[in-house]
């Protein structure tokens, strides 16, 4: 079956974006990642108009839904190219765009520094020995599966390139640290304050993040646990 890949391309940061079409002869069981690798194998690479063009730039690493590197917008939905199969897409046209909340580096490659910088701002790390409460083990394991891919931010109505709001990705990481903190340390207080002012006060609870999460995290449960640790359990109210 012949698929048409309609890809938004951009040579470099802040350069003009344009669309380019490519043909791919494949099977419904192929993933978008497989298709991109096969398209780039052509040398020289030509688009559907027969024009020579540069290879399609995109990120990948594990290709088994473990790293989140291949996140992009596929037919309007933020997804991982490695776990999105052509059989799940409607029709033979596959539209690929970079995630819009992050600066474009080139083609489908984006710079996720914004998300990582928020984790640094919140000080999402342990500064003392971790607690080992058995009742947190399941949710801590669940939170550790977050890929930090950025798909949740793409659909969040409260996120924007101008905002410090880092969405569920940061909140889930905060829970993992808060659930291991012992006592009422200055570091823990700083993290709880950051959680309140940069996440809780801005989250509209649309939960669109859970709908698109490639790791299928139980985001609602994790955020409820994070709220309990960051707000209610330590509240002076």
TrEMBL record:
GO terms (BP aspect): respiratory electron transport chain; tricarboxylic acid cycle
Molecular function (Gene Ontology), one example: 3 iron, 4 sulfur cluster binding
Top-level EC class as recorded in UniProt: oxidoreductase
InterPro entries, alphabetized: 2Fe-2S_ferredoxin-like_sf (IPR036010), 4Fe4S_Fe-S-bd (IPR017896), 4Fe4S_Fe_S_CS (IPR017900), Beta-grasp_dom_sf (IPR012675), Helical_ferredxn (IPR009051), SDH/FRD_Iron-Sulfur (IPR050573), Succ_DH/fum_Rdtase_Fe-S (IPR004489), Succ_DH/fum_Rdtase_N (IPR025192)
Keywords assigned by UniProt, alphabetized: 2Fe-2S, 3Fe-4S, 4Fe-4S, Iron, Iron-sulfur, Metal-binding, Oxidoreductase, Tricarboxylic acid cycle
Named cofactor requirement(s): [3Fe-4S] cluster; [2Fe-2S] cluster; [4Fe-4S] cluster
EC identifiers of the protein: 1.3.5.1
Homology family: Belongs to the succinate dehydrogenase/fumarate reductase iron-sulfur protein family.
Protein name per the record: succinate dehydrogenase
Lineage, highest ranks first: Bacteria, Bacillati, Bacillota, Negativicutes, Veillonellales
